[in-house]
C-alpha cells in the first residue's frame, strides 16, 4: 500500500463510510464540558447529518478505520476482491482528527466503522482504542457511535459499550438464506448472539445504575442495526417481519434500511439495477407505523401486494392499509379512541394529540379538523365529524383515485 498522508486517507475513508446509513442517534446521556475538565458535549435531540428540530445543522465525523477487509461479501464495495483504493488510519490519527475537527466546530461527535483487518478481534481492539483514548486521555464528552464486529470477543464488544453512546451491529440482509448466499463468511447466529449480549449488558447497566450512582453508563443511546434492501430476493414483507423481530428480541433503538447500490466489478449474483429509492422510503414509513402508530408487523405486511409481497410505491403504507381494510372506516373523530384515530390516513401523532385535547371542550366539525392537520382532503373518506358524513365517498367502489397523491414531475434545479 502506498504511503498516504492523513488528508488522502480521510478522502478515501470518509467516502467509503457513506454506505452506512445508521449514523443518526437520540436518547444519549447529556454531557458538557462547562466545568473546564473536558472537551465536547452532547444534546438530547441526537446527532446526524441533517438539521436538528431546533434548526441547528449538526454532524458527525463519519469514517472507516480502514476500507481493507479480509471478508468477501458480494454486496460490499470494500470486499477483499474489490479493486478499490485502500487506506488505513491508526487509532491515534482518528483521535487527532476527531479533536481537531471538534475544536474547529466542524463536528459534534464521531461515527466509526471499519473493514476487517487481520482478525475480528484485532480490528475491534483498534476501534475500542479510539474511543478509550478519546474518553480517558482527552476527556472527550461529545457523541461517539461505534460499529461493532459480531465475530469479535464479547469482552471487546462490551468495552465498546462502556465508551460509546450508541453501538451498532449490522444484520446486513433480512433473510438467513440471503446472508449465506451473499456474505458466506458471516453468520446470522453470531450476529444475533452479539445483539443479545449487548441487550443483556444494557439491562444490567440500567439495573446497576438504579442501585449505585457510581455505576458506569453503558451505551446510553442503545443499539441499532442496518439492512440492505434489494440485494437479494427478500420482499418488503420479509424485511418488515425481520425488523419487527429485531425490535422485539433485542430492544433496538432503530433499524435502518439502505437501498442496494450497484458497485464496480460487481459479482454476477447481484442485481444489475438498484431498487427504487421510494422502496426504501416506504420501508421507513412502515417502520414508523410499528414504532409510533400501534401497527404490528402482520398488519403492515397485509398492506403489501399479496402476490409479490411488496408495498405499493405510489401511496404510503398507512393509506394502503386503510384502502384494503375499509370496513374499519369511517372513524368518528369525536368518539374514536386514540388507537383508531392513529389509523386514519393523514392524521399524525401530533394531530391526534390535538384532536383528543380539543374534543374535551367541544364536538369537532370538519373545519376544526382541517385547522389541526396539513390537509383535510385525504381525511374526508375516513372520518365522521359533527357536520360531515362521507356517505357517497364511503360507498364508492374505487376510492384510491380520490385520496392518492397526484404525481408530479420534480424539478432538477428547483429553488
UniProtKB/TrEMBL annotation:
NCBIfam families: rSAM_link_UDG (TIGR03916). Signal peptide: none annotated. Residues 59-286 form the Elp3/MiaA/NifB-like radical SAM core domain. Its cofactor is [4Fe-4S] cluster. PANTHER family: ENDONUCLEASE/EXONUCLEASE/PHOSPHATASE FAMILY DOMAIN-CONTAINING PROTEIN 1, TYPE II SECRETION SYSTEM PROTEIN K. The keyword S-adenosyl-L-methionine applies. Pfam families: Radical_SAM. This is DNA modification/repair radical SAM protein. It comes from Sphingomonas corticis. The keyword Metal-binding applies. InterPro entries: Aldolase_TIM (IPR013785), DNA_rSAM_put (IPR023874), Elp3/MiaA/NifB-like_rSAM (IPR006638), Endo/Exo/Phosphatase_dom_1 (IPR051675), rSAM (IPR007197), rSAM_sf (IPR058240), RuvA_2-like (IPR010994). SUPFAM superfamilies: Radical SAM enzymes (SSF102114), RuvA domain 2-like (SSF47781). Keywords: Iron, Iron-sulfur, Metal-binding, S-adenosyl-L-methionine.
Amino acid at each position: 500500500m502506498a504511503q498516504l498522508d492523513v488528508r488522502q486517507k480521510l478522502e478515501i475513508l470518509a467516502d467509503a463510510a457513506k454506505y452506512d446509513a445508521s449514523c443518526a442517534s437520540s436518547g444519549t446521556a447529556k454531557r458538557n464540558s462547562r466545568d473546564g475538565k473536558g472537551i465536547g458535549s452532547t444534546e438530547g435531540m441526537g446527532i446526524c447529518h441533517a438539521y436538528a428540530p431546533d434548526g441547528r445543522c449538526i454532524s458527525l465525523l463519519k469514517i472507516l478505520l480502514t476500507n481493507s477487509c479480509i471478508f468477501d461479501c458480494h454486496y460490499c464495495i470494500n470486499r477483499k476482491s474489490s479493486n478499490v483504493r485502500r487506506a488505513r488510519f491508526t487509532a491515534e490519527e482518528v483521535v487527532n482528527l476527531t479533536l481537531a475537527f471538534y475544536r474547529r466546530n466542524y463536528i459534534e461527535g464521531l461515527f466509526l466503522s471499519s473493514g476487517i483487518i487481520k482478525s475480528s478481534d484485532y480490528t475491534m481492539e483498534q476501534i475500542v482504542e479510539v474511543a478509550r483514548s478519546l474518553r480517558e486521555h482527552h476527556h472527550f464528552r461529545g457523541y461517539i457511535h461505534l460499529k461493532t464486529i459480531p465475530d469479535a470477543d464479547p469482552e471487546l464488544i462490551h468495552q465498546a459499550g462502556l465508551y460509546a453512546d450508541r453501538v451498532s451491529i449490522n444484520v446486513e440482509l433480512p433473510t438467513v438464506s440471503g446472508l449465506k448466499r451473499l456474505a458466506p463468511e458471516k453468520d446470522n447466529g453470531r450476529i444475533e448472539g452479539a445483539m443479545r449480549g449487548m441487550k443483556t449488558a444494557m439491562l444490567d447497566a440500567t439495573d446497576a445504575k438504579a442501585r449505585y450512582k457510581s455505576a458506569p453508563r453503558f451505551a446510553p443511546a442503545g443499539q441499532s442495526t442496518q439492512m440492505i434492501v434489494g440485494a437479494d430476493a427478500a420482499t418488503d414483507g420479509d424485511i418488515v417481519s425481520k425488523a419487527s423481530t429485531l425490535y422485539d428480541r433485542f430492544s433496538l433503538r432503530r433499524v435502518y434500511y439502505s437501498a442496494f447500490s450497484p458497485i464496480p466489478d460487481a459479482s454476477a449474483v447481484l442485481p444489475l439495477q438498484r431498487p427504487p429509492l421510494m422502496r426504501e422510503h416506504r420501508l421507513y414509513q412502515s417502520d414508523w407505523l410499528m414504532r409510533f402508530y400501534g401497527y404490528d408487523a402482520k398488519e403492515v405486511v397485509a398492506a403489501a401486494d399479496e402476490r409479490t409481497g411488496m408495498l405499493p410505491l405510489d401511496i404510503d403504507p398507512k393509506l394502503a392499509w386503510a384502502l384494503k381494510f375499509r370496513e374499519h372506516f369511517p372513524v368518528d373523530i369525536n368518539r374514536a379512541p386514540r388507537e383508531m384515530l392513529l389509523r386514519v390516513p393523514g392524521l399524525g401523532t401530533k394531530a391526534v394529540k390535538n384532536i383528543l385535547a380539543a374534543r374535551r371542550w367541544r364536538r369537532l366539525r370538519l373545519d376544526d379538523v382541517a385547522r389541526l392537520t396539513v390537509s383535510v382532503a385525504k381525511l374526508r373518506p375516513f372520518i365522521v365529524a359533527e357536520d360531515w358524513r362521507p356517505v357517497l365517498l364511503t360507498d364508492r367502489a374505487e376510492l384510491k383515485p380520490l385520496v392518492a397523491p397526484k404525481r408530479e414531475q420534480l424539478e432538477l434545479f428547483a429553488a
